[in-house]
Amino acid sequence: MTIRETQEQWEKEYLSPYAAFSMNSKGRDKEEEPCDIRPVYQRDRDRILHSKSFRRLKDKTQVFLTPEGDHYRTRLTHTLEVSQNARTIAKALQLNEELVEAIALGHDLGHTPFGHAGERALNRICPYGFEHAKQSVRTVELLEKDGQGLNLTWEVRDGILNHQTVGTPSTLEGKIVRLSDKIAYMHHDMDDAIRAGILIDMDIPREIGDVLGYTTGERLDSLIHDIVINSSGKDDILMSDEVSTAMKKLRQFMFERVYQNPEAKSEEGKAEMLMETLYDYYLYHLEAMPSEYLRLIDKGEPKEMVVCDYVGAMTDRFAISTYEEIYIPKSWHG
C-alpha cells in the first residue's frame, strides 16, 4: 500500500461521512498517474501554491488601492486568511482540510489589479463580460503553465467557481470556503478601516456588536464558533439565525461605511480608467502581448477574452508601470 493509499484510508476511518473523500473525487479533465505520496486534493493545493497567478496576489489590491503602510491586506493575505478560517472550521467538523485549502488558495486567482474596481472596468468594456470567479477557473484550466492549465480536480474547480454568495458549491468543503471568504474580508477590511482611521471599534451598531462582539477578534471568534456548533454532525454548513442576521447587517454596515466610502474609494475612478485604457491598447496592439497569449488566439480563443486574460492578470504595480510606459512621456536625455 502506498503512502497516498494509507492517507486515503485514514480519511475513510476518521473524517465525517459527509466529507469529500480524496479517493471518491470525480477526477481531472485529463487523466494522470496518481501520486504515490499525495492524495488528489493535496496535489491540487500544491499546484496552486506554486503557480505564477498565486504569487501575483501579493501585489493586488484587497480594499485600499496601493496603500502606504506595511500592514494593510493584499489579495494574497486575504487568501491566506480565508484558508486559515476554512481549515479551522473543516478540522472541527472532521471534513477534508486539504480540499478546503485548495479551494481557498485558488478562489481569487482570477482577480484583477485594483480589486473590484478593475473587475468592474473589464466587465463593462469586454463584450464577453468579466467575473473574477469564472476567471479564476479559466486561470487554472487554461492560462497557467503557458496554456496547459493546472488540471485540477472537479471538486476544487467547483469550489472556486461557486465561492461567491450566488454560488452553490457541491461539497461541504466548498460551502465552508464560501462562508470563510465573507468572514475573512469583513474581519480584515474592518481591521484595515480602523487602521486607516475610517472607523473605530465603537462605530459598530449595538444590534451587531451585542451578537458578534465589538472587536475584530471577538467577531471572528463568534462567527467561526457559530458555524462549527450549528454544522456539527449535519450534511450542510449552517449558521444560527441570530448570527446570520447580524453578519448580514455587518456586511451592509461595511458597504455603507467602507466599501462605498468616498475617502477610501477616491482613486477607484482612475483605476477603472487605467484598466479600460490598457484593454483598448492591447486590443489594437495584440502583438505587444506575450507569446503565450498570442498562442491562445491562434487556438481560437476570442481576442477580447485573451486581452482580458492579460490585463486582468496584471498586478497593481505592473499595470501602473505598463500604463506609464505606453502613455507617459519620458524626459529626453541628449
Descriptive notes:
This protein is mainly α. The protein has two domains: 32-259, Hypothetical protein af1432; 268-327, no CATH class. The chain is built from 16 helices and no strands. The longest helix has 24 residues, at 172-195. The radius of gyration is 21 Å and the shape is flat. The termini are far apart. The model has no long low-confidence stretch (mean pLDDT 93).
How many domains? 2
- Span of the ends, CA to CA: 72 Å
Q: How large a portion of the residues is in β-strands, by DSSP E? A: under 5%
Sheet bearing the most strands, described?
A: none
Report the helical percentage. 55-70%
Structural class: mainly alpha
- Series of secondary-structure elements, N-terminal to C-terminal: HHHHHHHHHHHHHHHH
Unreliable segments (pLDDT under 50, ≥5 consecutive)? Answer: none
Rg for CA atoms: 21 Å
What do the pLDDT scores average to? 93
Quaternary: single chain
What name is given to the CATH topology of the largest domain? Hypothetical protein af1432
CATH class of the largest domain: Mainly Alpha
CATH architecture of the largest domain: Orthogonal Bundle
How many helical stretches?
A: 16
The overall strand count is: 0
CATH-wise, what's the superfamily of the largest domain?
Hypothetical protein af1432
Mass-distribution shape = flat
Keywords:
334 residues; mainly alpha; Hypothetical protein af1432
List the helices and strands and how they pair.
Elements: H1 3-14, H2 40-49, H3 52-56, H4 75-92, H5 97-106, H6 115-125, H7 132-147, H8 154-161, H9 172-195, H10 206-212, H11 216-231, H12 241-259, H13 268-284, H14 291-298, H15 303-313, H16 316-327
Helix pairs in contact: 2-5, 4-5, 4-9, 4-11, 5-8, 5-9, 6-13, 8-9, 9-11, 9-12, 10-12, 13-15, 13-16, 14-15
